[in-house]
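TA notes, week 10

Several of you asked for a full example with nothing omitted. So below is the full record: structure tokens for the whole chain, then the designed sequence directly under it. When grading your own attempts, check the secondary structure regions first.
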């Protein structure tokens, strides 16, 4: 591995700016699919490349209560090394119509994200979530014939799809930046 002009070349020819290397190696993300009744949660691996469904929490009577419940779930993931938060970023699914315009659920997701950021102090990103619930339902239907079990897991699976879309886009941007350097 060599460094030249602020650029680090890895074993496989990947090029990263020095500032990206530490962030890339230890950034774990939480994906969130916000619903009126349930909130699906997904986690990335420590490298920030692969998303997996984690759990579903009840939304509660208000957005503030929902944000507090998600914050409590995040607190169970404390980093054992430095006792800091185990997630470096939160990705909230942003609902839109198929034509890309916003609707009433979009405002709900934005308000939830602001409350979640205030509750956790972790940076919040948005990711388009169009058709993720349908994709999640189709994925689960292929593995689980019982609709009751699928219903309990569909929100977390949708959160995993949202998070994976964000992680893939993030890698594409980094790859494009590395080829420009």
């Amino acid at each position: 591995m060599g460094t030249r002009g602020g650029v680090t070349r890895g074993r496989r020819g990947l090029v990263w700016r020095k500032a990206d290397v530490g962030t890339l190696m230890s950034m774990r993300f939480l994906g969130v699919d916000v619903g009126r009744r349930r909130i699906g949660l997904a986690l990335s691996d420590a490298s920030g490349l692969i998303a997996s469904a984690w759990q579903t929490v009840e939304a509660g009577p208000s957005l503030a209560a929902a944000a507090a419940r998600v914050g409590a779930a995040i607190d169970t993931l404390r980093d054992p090394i430095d006792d800091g938060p185990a997630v470096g970023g939160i990705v909230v699914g942003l609902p839109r119509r198929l034509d890309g315009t916003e609707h009433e659920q979009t405002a709900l997701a934005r308000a939830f994200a602001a409350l979640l950021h205030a509750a956790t102090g972790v940076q919040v990103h948005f990711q388009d979530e169009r058709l993720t619930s349908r994709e999640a339902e189709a994925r689960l239907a292929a593995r689980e014939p019982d609709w009751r079990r699928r219903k309990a897991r569909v929100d977390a699976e949708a959160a995993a799809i949202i998070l994976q879309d964000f992680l893939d886009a993030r890698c594409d941007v980094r790859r494009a930046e590395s080829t420009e350097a």
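DSSP finds five helices and eight strands in the chain. Use that as a sanity check on your answer.
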